[in-house]
Amino acid sequence: ARATRAVVIGGGLIGLKAAEALHEIGLAVTVLELSPQLLPAAADEKVAAIIADHLRAKGLVVSVENTAERIESEDGRVKQVVCKSGDILAADMVVIAIGVRPNTQIVEGTGIETRRGIVVNRRLQTSVAGIYAAGDVAEGFDLVEGVDRLLPLWPVAYRQGMVAGANMAGQDVEYDGYFAMNAIELLGLPLISMGKLQAPEDDPEYEVLSRNEGAGCRKFILQNNRIVGAIFLNDIDRAGIISGLIRDGSDVGEFREELLKEDFGLFSLPKKWRGKKIGRPKGT
């Protein structure tokens, strides 16, 4: 209640939501992000620049390629933040939001294999029989990247928990994988991103489709006619259809030209696809 100036270290999803909340209750807020852009795990460079401009227009200070060298106090309270850039920011409070690190210490010395997180198989079982792991601590299968890795996201934790629980209860269920997906709204500007955010350069397997209109844009990354990534900024309608196409590994070559159209929806899909997506009875 006494604070008037806040510094948020970290311009990812959590840091920006904290910055938004502090701004909305009247604090002067500065966001520091070490990467060259905001939201490095949830946006490409172009979309991140639009979001940064949007936040600045609302009154926040955004500083990229910058972070805190140290936090100084006086009488036991935060006084200022000394930045990598040399700037000194007066501050009454500091929020540190610089990523997720799994707590693997709980399995040290147990024989359970770990990398960045706890290694699991498709049944979410660890390297020790009868011990399962799910959620932010588990390295589950990323169906877009084709590797096991950490995906600290709520939908992933939910799905993994269901699979692990079923197997612990005696069933035989496999986790079919998921992919990175984030949804956030920042001071009235919504963003949804999923899968790959950038296509590898000079790789003929990949193609990028994009549409930009003012503060809104859509971008799709295709690999051999299959959507492997998408970004929706401001115009987020029907993003759920795209996530379904990514999850199914669907070949969209037959209707790829429809993806960027303003009225794209289920009825943009071929008739056989519509039946599959809306559950049309066979033979109708």
Quick summary:
With 284 residues, this protein is an alpha/beta fold. The chain has helices at 13-24, 45-57, 154-168, 239-248, 271-278, and strands spanning 5-9, 28-33, 61-64, 68-74, 77-83, 88-90, 93-96, 118-119, 138-142, 147-150, 181-186, 189-195, 206-213, 216-223, 226-233. The chain is built from 5 helices and 15 strands.
Word description of this protein:
- This protein is an alpha/beta fold and 284 residues long.
- Helix content is 20%, strand content 30%.
- The chain has 5 helices and 15 strands.
- Strands 11-12-15-14-13 form a 5-stranded antiparallel β-sheet. The chain has a 4-stranded parallel β-sheet with strand order 3-2-1-7, with helices on one face.
- The chain is flat and about 65 Å long.
- The model is unreliable at 280-284 (pLDDT under 50).
Layout of helices and strands:
Blueprint: E1 5-9, H1 13-24, E2 28-33, H2 45-57, E3 61-64, E4 68-74, E5 77-83, E6 88-90, E7 93-96, E8 118-119, E9 138-142, E10 147-150, H3 154-168, E11 181-186, E12 189-195, E13 206-213, E14 216-223, E15 226-233, H4 239-248, H5 271-278
Parallel strand pairs: 1-2, 1-7, 2-3, 8-9
Antiparallel strand pairs: 4-5, 5-6, 9-10, 11-12, 12-15, 13-14, 14-15
